[in-house]
Write a structure and sequence with these properties.
CATH superfamily of chain A: MetI-like
Transmembrane segments (chain A): 52-70, 116-140, 149-165, 171-190, 211-237, 266-288
Helix content of chain B: 25-40%
GO biological process, one term (chain A): transmembrane transport
Low-confidence stretches of chain A: none
Number of strands of chain A: 0
Radius of gyration of chain B: 19 Å
Number of helices of chain A: 12
Order of helices and strands of chain B: HEEEHEEHHHEHEHEEHH
Shape of chain A: flat
Order of helices and strands of chain A: HHHHHHHHHHHH
Mean pLDDT of chain B: 90
Organism (chain A): Novosphingobium chloroacetimidivorans
Number of domains of chain A: 1
Strand content of chain B: 15-25%
Distance between the termini of chain A: 29 Å
Region (Disordered) (chain A): 1-20
Low-confidence stretches of chain B: none
Strand order of the largest sheet of chain B: 5-6-7-3-8-9
Number of strands of chain B: 9
Largest sheet of chain A: none
Distance between the termini of chain B: 36 Å
CATH class of chain A: Mainly Alpha
Mean pLDDT of chain A: 86
CATH topology of chain A: MetI-like fold
Strand content of chain A: under 5%
Family (chain A): Belongs to the binding-protein-dependent transport system permease family.
CATH architecture of chain A: Orthogonal Bundle
Bound molecules: adenosine-5'-triphosphate, magnesium ion
Radius of gyration of chain A: 31 Å
Largest sheet of chain B: 6 strands, mixed
Helix content of chain A: 55-70%
Oligomer: heterodimer
Structural class of chain B: alpha/beta
Largest interface: A-B, 21 and 19 residues
Shape of chain B: globular
Chain lengths: 301, 253
């Protein structure tokens, strides 16, 4: 490896010495014979990401908002197709003032949280059973892969048959939506644990519990957290579906009702609510993720 | 020390056979290791050195075979990569699975022994390769092993760091006094560290040489040169660096 000094100041070209038969020539001044090399640009070449910008993630949403606002003012976006952003805000404030909004949000959030809790707990538990034991894998994994091939939406009629049209059906449904990504990612992470670390643990003769605590759990945690992020999103998204069935409250119900009366501004508020709630909970999960995975050094940091 | 208790070997390998699918890697290998003995294991690439080490360490789940293996209870393994858990700080890596209320204290002492006192809360990725390997050494010695197995532990280090590691290993081994089986590609490393040097070829041990350390410099030099030439011949390298014909290697065995 050449040192930095060498790169910045390449070695001087050798003087060729006296030419045969021509006698001795005075060497020309060294500077004249130096090739003109542009000074090297240090620190410009980089394949990884540069330093993160503060609030850089707002760029995309801000552009989208700007496009939407400009489109609405100029009439390029018809207000019957998509109301202007400020209409969403004023309608939202109206809804807040008559109390409908927070009631609906609260009901929806409760459903999502319950579904998330059951789905995530079961997803992680089954993934551990099927990921860490051979028999568990044979028992559960193929069944769950089979289920993955069936759209969850197609299960709704059966769920109504089994659980009725009440809260139980809705929470179960959300749980199923949440279960799948969490199971898949956790299982994948468990089966992907580096064998070298398993081997190391074996040479130390540590107990199975210690193995779980020191090798398996931290090794699979990135996958579990990723699954959780998908799961949280799935909980919110599944609300749209389950709250169309026999409901009198919730964001989905609010949207549905608005659709029947062609209130596109209320529908829009509902959509934005989903977005905000989804993003906020994803952000929360990522905070936790950053905290528990602080040892990691990756491109994303 | 363990040496005073039993007089017999601490490791006894008899007629060890290991094969992967159909290919025989170890073909009836015998080996004894005395307590506190430092053995260097040489052999060409693919000769089965790692396979033997993994058999002794009980890590060869995927190999089939037969033979008798008597091994001590406390065995530590050092791998070519340091295998520090990236999600545990150094001290927690060192005392992983260690029991007793003084585990942390012992871990700190072990880190100090390898010259990393004060770094206990660092993450593994904050260390250089040589430092990581020193932590791996501390992690294996803190368990007070009767047998230390090391598979090319310095293979990934630069020459200068490797020489420093040799000094460190010598010092630590003289303190903890485990029996050592060190796999290496480096003939000079074997001569510098071992009490006994064995060469593996075709799945059996083909050379078993004592490697005394001489106080007299001239004697040591002569011994080193002779041992080196002999070992290289067993490994299929002639005195001028050319590859030897198979017959010549067999004759050397
Ligand atoms: N898990 C495995 N599955 C199949 N074959 C294997 C496996 N491990 C080792 N082998 C084969 O066994 C032979 C001996 O391998 P081993 O790793 O013991 O060699 P080695 O002496 O340690 O070589 P090196 O010096 O390159 O590390 C090789 O031919 C290798 O291909
Ligand atoms: Mg090997």
């Amino acid at each position: 490896m050449a040192s930095t000094a060498e790169l910045l100041h390449p070695p001087f070209p050798k003087h060729p010495g006296p030419l045969p038969g021509l006698g001795y020539h005075r060497p020309r001044p060294v500077l004249e014979t130096m090739p003109t090399v542009p000074p090297l640009q240090r620190g410009k070449y980089r394949l990884g990401l540069p330093r993160a910008w503060t609030y850089g993630w707002l760029l995309g949403p801000a552009m989208l908002l700007a496009y939407w606002a400009v489109g609405s003012t100029s009439g390029f976006i018809d207000s019957r197709i998509l109301p202007a952003p400020w209409v969403a805000v004023t309608t939202g404030i109206d809804l807040l003032q008559d109390g409908r909004l927070h009631h609906n949000v609260l009901v929806s959030a409760l459903r999502a949280a319950q579904g998330l809790f059951f789905g995530a707990t079961l997803g992680v538990a089954v993934a551990f059973l099927s990921g860490l034991s051979l028999v568990g894998g044979y028992l559960f994994d193929s069944v769950i892969q089979l289920k993955r091939a069936i759209p969850t939406l197609a299960l709704i009629p059966f769920f109504i048959l089994w659980f009725g049209v009440g809260e139980t059906m809705k929470v179960t449904m959300i749980g199923v939506f949440v279960f799948l990504p969490i199971y898949v990612h956790t299982h994948n992470a468990l089966r992907g644990i580096d064998l070298r670390f398993v081997e190391l643990a074996e040479t130390m003769r540590i107990s199975y519990l210690e193995y779980l605590r020191h090798v398996v759990l931290p090794g699979a945690l990135p996958g579990i957290m990723l699954g959780l992020r998908f799961g949280v999103m799935a909980a919110w998204v599944s609300l749209v579906v389950v709250e169309q069935i026999n409901t009198t409250s919730g964001i989905g119900y609010m949207i549905n009702l608005a659709r029947n009366y062609a209130q596109s501004d209320v529908m829009l508020v509902g959509l934005l609510l989903y977005a905000v709630l989804g993003l906020a909970s994803d952000f929360a999960v990522r905070l936790v993720e950053r905290k528990v995975l602080s040892w990691r050094r990756t491109l994303g940091q | 020390m363990s040496g005073t208790m039993h007089t017999g070997p601490i490791v006894r390998v008899r007629n060890l056979v290991r094969r992967f699918t159909v290919k025989g890697v170890l073909n009836g290998l015998d080996l004894d290791i005395a307590p506190g003995e430092f053995i260097a294991l040489l052999g060409r690439s693919g000769s089965g050195k790692s396979t033997l080490l993994r058999a002794i360490a009980d890590l060869d789940h995927e190999a089939t075979g037969s033979g008798d293996l008597f091994v001590p209870e406390r065995i530590s393994v050092v791998f070519q990569d340091s295998r520090l858990l990236p999600w545990r700080r150094l001290i927690d890596n060192v005392i992983l699975g260690l029991r007793g209320s003084d585990a942390r204290e012992r871990g700190l002492k072990a880190l100090a022994e390898v010259g990393l006192a004060g770094r206990e809360t660092a993450w593994p990725h904050e260390l250089s390769g040589g430092e990581q390997q020193r932590v791996a050494l501390a992690r294996s010695l803190v368990r007070d092993p009767e047998l230390l197995l090391a598979d090319e532990p310095f293979g990934a280090l630069d020459a200068l760091t490797r020489i420093k590691m040799h000094g460190l290993v010598k010092r630590l081994v003289s303190i903890h006094n485990p029996a050592v089986l060190l796999v290496t590609h480096d003939v000079d490393e074997a001569i510098a560290l071992a009490d006994r040097i064995i060469v593996l070829d075709q799945g059996v041990i083909v050379a078993d040489l004592p490697n005394a350390h001489h106080d007299d410099d001239i004697e040591q030099l002569e011994h080193t040169a002779a041992t080196r030439r002999l070992l290289l011949r067993h490994l299929g390298v002639g005195h001028d660096g050319r590859a030897l014909a198979p017959e010549a290697v067999d004759a050397a065995h």
